[in-house]
Amino acid sequence: EHAMAQILACTDGSVYAESILDHAAWASARMGSASVRVLHVLDRATAEAPVDRSGALGVNASEELLRELAELDEARGKVSLRRARALLAAAEARLKAAGVAHITTVQRHGALVDTIVEFEGEADLLVVGKRGEAANFAVGHLGANLERVLRSSILPVLVASRSFRPITRFAIAYDGGRHAQQAVAYAAGTASLDGLECHLVTVATDEAAGLALLAEPAAQLAAAGKTATQTVLQGDADTAIAGHVATAGIDLLVMGAYGHGRLRNMIVGSTTTALLRSCRIPVLVFR
After folding, report:
1. Which pLDDT value is given to residue 218?
2. Contact 27, 97 (CB under 8 A)
3. Residue 16 has pLDDT above 90, yes or no
4. Is residue 264 scored above 80 in pLDDT?
5. Residues 6+ apart with CB under 8 A from 270
6. How far apart are CA 221 and CA 228, in angstroms?
7. How far apart are the two ends of the chain, measured CA to CA in Å?
8. Would you state the pLDDT for residue 275?
């Protein structure tokens, strides 16, 4: 255990940026005023690399044109960097205003996942948005970065929804798998979810089978002094859980990254992906 818990929050200037910071501030307060480190990663492809255009433009392209294009690339890189610094300054101000006492900011060039790997060893929680700035905003499209982060990070990942709202009620989607067990162990063992109404939700062919599956996690939570409302849903897992989240007024969904019983090493579990897409609330993911 570190002396002080630390949260890694990734910002990129997308419409999720403010919500990511608000979720990080909420988590900080819940984790005994954890410090927050804000990461901004400029993708090399878009920010840095000067493009060699001489081939595409043919041998007769004037030196002057090539020089102007190079200057344009350089100027664009500088503007990207200035914008990144401005975003980090704004992030720090927003976190301060939300009561976070310990804030650091980091600006990097490269791939988001690599930067997270570099810093996650010191951290306890990662906060990201459902979509990044470059993502296609077709409804239900998840940022490719999010999938990569969920695959590679060792940390619990809090996936922020479009805007933050107060969290009073959380649900654990439980399927008996290893990742779902991790989610229950976290909920039982952490003070950060204390005082919130807890729901255990599973999807089963019949009520009795579902309740039998929920007996163990319910006992584990009860032993930690947390009473969980148990709900057995029927039908297609993602549709049923998303529906329950909406009707029961759940503010936070807690779940494993991979479903039980299928070896999904290469992609995030299909139910996870579907739930991240269809639930309009933040999701805390374990793997």
Report:
1. 97
2. no
3. no
4. no
5. 238, 259, 264
6. 7
7. 19
8. 82
Q: Which domains does the chain have, with CATH numbers?
A: 6-46+80-159 (3.40.50.620), 167-286 (3.40.50.620)
**Residue with token string 């399927």:** 175
This prediction's pTM:
0.87
133 in Cβ contact with 10 (< 8 Å) = no
Residue (of 78, 258, 246) closest to 171 by Cα position? 246
Q: pLDDT for 226-255, tens place per residue?
A: 999 999 999 888 889 999 999 999 999 999
> What is the rounded distance in angstroms from the CA atom of residue 90 to the CA atom of residue 235?
45
Structure tokens at 168: 């009073």
From the number of C-beta atoms within 10 Å of its C-beta (0-12, 13-18, 19+), residue 221 rates as buried
174, 195, 241 from 41: Cα distances, Å: 34, 35, 34
Contact, 175 vs 279, CB < 8 A? Answer: no
pLDDT at 139: 45
